[in-house]
Input
Amino acid sequence: MEEILHMNGGVGETSYATNSLLQRTVISMVKPILEESILELYGTLLPECLNVADLGCSTGPNTLLVISEILESIEAASQKSNLKLPLFQVFLNDLPGNDFNTVFRSLPGFCKKLEEERGSKLEPCFIAGVPGSFYGRLFHNKSLHFVHSSYALMWLSEPPKALVIKPEALNKGNICIAKTSTPAVFKAYYEQFNRDFSMFLKSRGEEVVPGGRMMLTTMGNLRSDDPLTIWEFVGLKLNDMVLEGLIEEKSLDSFNLSYYAPTAEEVKKVIEDEGSFTLERLETFMVDWDTYISKADCSLDTEERAAILATDMRAVGEPILSSQFGESIMDDLFMRFKRDVFGYMEAHECKFINLVISLTRKT
Ligand code: SAH
Output
């Protein structure tokens, strides 16, 4: 999974860089919580150089937006607390398959733009890339003051083991937890999430200084036995293609996406059981699948909105789906997505559910 997963690279028409407005909207919506978290960090820690990590940074404008929002929050906190601005070091982490080159290439232009906007030279700001999985150690002991991650933790390190051993019998016709999944499937996915998220917290627990903060935004759920995920709809479209003989049934039945959107209660329990961090804040908020599109441009009709939603999902799902089903069916799959998504939205409750989790490393 960790060798295959990455968002579509580059800056072209199907790239994540060009098609990540949903994730950008979410980053902007949670900015007040980011500001609050950094201000509280300032109340307890005053390092000469503030070490920040963005985990699952991906590529494109969102990567840069996160850096500038953290920078702005640090400046605001320094002003409010009447303190000198610290030096600022950012580690951008993602899996090795991520298009780090596009990120690195955009950095000089990004720094120049920031300087122009504020009309002054930036304080020294050091930016580095850190390839590797956040479900293990990435940094040395007690070296980070602030950890940020947005829309990345719902990706598991691997599909649930129970489904890999007996995939066809257990989650037939589905690519993730779906309405027709059995309790055994819920359990297998929950156990994988529990293992992965515990490992994430344990690893960060060793890397974050006592009193250091973490702010994590991830896709979540309201009820663990009633998943509302857009991947379920992608699974339905793949099923249609099986029925038409375009995909082998075996290929669909043996595929399970390494994706789990936990409930707030599940997140809370793992944090408490693992024990390295104190939970400061846990919020759930929801948006309709197409809200972020109509907010950006209210003149778009349903067909145009469906086309954007399909392209955005493709930018995220194409590498992993094509590794199982082949690149040749991708145009057809996302054409079907575009054609049918609004009909599905009329018949079902279709929301992206987001969890924002703010944590402090225990002293
Ligand atoms: N934070 C960005 C990207 C979200 S896409 C934004 O909000 O726009 C999710 C990213 O998480 C992808 O780039 C994916 O490669 C990365 N990711 C998923 N699992 C990961 C893991 N185990 N370790 C590091 N990065 C991971």
